[in-house]
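Async update (no meeting this week)

Hi team, since we skipped the sync, here's where things stand on the single-chain job. The sequence we agreed to prioritize is pasted below, unchanged from the tracker. I ran it this morning and attached the output directly underneath so nobody has to dig for it. Comments welcome in thread, and please keep replies under the output.
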Amino acid sequence: MKSNTKTRFVAASLVAVLAWVAACPEARASQTKDAGSDFGIGMVAVLANVVYMPVKVVYGVLGGVTGGFAYVLSGANRDVAEGVWVPSLGGDYVLTTEMMTGREPVHFNGVRGRPGHSGDDAPADGGSSSGSAF
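Output:
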């Protein structure tokens, strides 16, 4: 198990170094004060993704399996399964620099469709849904 952790650490370090090397020429070419800030935000995004992406993938896989069980155990009721699948499999799998600076929201969970938006679970009569949004 230690070699697996060591391998992950080496891989994450390699990704961070490659991102740093790739960003250095661009930072030197840009003579603005924002270059250092952009580089820093990019490094924060890379390091945050080292933790965020595996957690999100595990959450999605477990949600997919759980949704499958919900589908089978509810007598093939797709709405029940989608109640698990949409939040767990939807959302963002990668954090971007725009998300790190707050220009875009981070959606860890997927969001089911709401009235007035596209989505299969919007009420047919145009009224408001009785449940809470995910």
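Quick observations from my side:
Helices lie at 2-29, 34-73, 78-89, 97-100.
The mean pLDDT is 77.
Reply here if anything looks off.
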